[in-house]
């Protein structure tokens, strides 16, 4: 039997929690520009499944990749690292 590859895990902030059992998460990454050597910040948005509807806007969460759950959802919330103030 074949072993499954390890799932991708990302950390980001919840931007929107207006949908039912779905949250929008902004993931920020930094890298060095190959030519100009400046540190650049990029953000990407992902849609994640929140089964218990417990995430709120501003929370810092850990998400894990999963099978496609809908047209846009490919991630699920694993844990809430930090609550918003």
Short description:
Helix content is 0%, strand content 55%. The chain has 85 residues and is mostly beta strands.
Outline the structure in words.
This protein is mostly beta strands. It contains no helices and five strands. The protein has strands spanning 9-19, 22-32, 39-49, 60-65, 75-82. A five-stranded mixed barrel has the order 1-2-3-5-4. The mean pLDDT is 96.
Order of helices and strands: EEEEE
The shape, in one word, is globular
Beta-strand level of the residues, as a percent range?
over 45%
- Major sheet details: 5 strands, mixed, barrel
Measure the end-to-end span. Answer: 47 Å
Count the E strands: 5
Structural class: mainly beta
Which segments are poorly predicted (pLDDT under 50) over 5 or more consecutive residues? none
Oligomer state equals single chain
Question: Any idea what the radius of gyration is?
Answer: 15 Å
Provide the spatial order of strands within the biggest beta sheet. 1-2-3-5-4
Q: Look at the structure and give the mean pLDDT.
A: 96
Question: Level of helix content?
Answer: under 10%
Which key phrases capture this entry?
mainly beta; 85 residues; 5 strands; five-stranded mixed beta barrel
Topology:
Blueprint: E1 9-19, E2 22-32, E3 39-49, E4 60-65, E5 75-82
Parallel strand pairs: 3-5
Antiparallel strand pairs: 1-2, 1-4, 2-3, 4-5
């Amino acid at each position: 039997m074949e072993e499954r590859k390890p799932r991708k895990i990302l950390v980001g902030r919840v931007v929107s929690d207006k949908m039912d059992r779905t949250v929008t998460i902004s993931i920020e990454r930094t890298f060095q520009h190959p030519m100009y050597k400046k540190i650049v910040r990029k953000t990407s948005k992902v849609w994640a499944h929140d089964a218990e509807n417990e995430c709120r806007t501003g929370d810092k969460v850990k998400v894990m990749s999963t099978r496609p759950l809908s047209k846009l959802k490919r991630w699920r919330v694993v844990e809430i690292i930090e609550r918003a103030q």
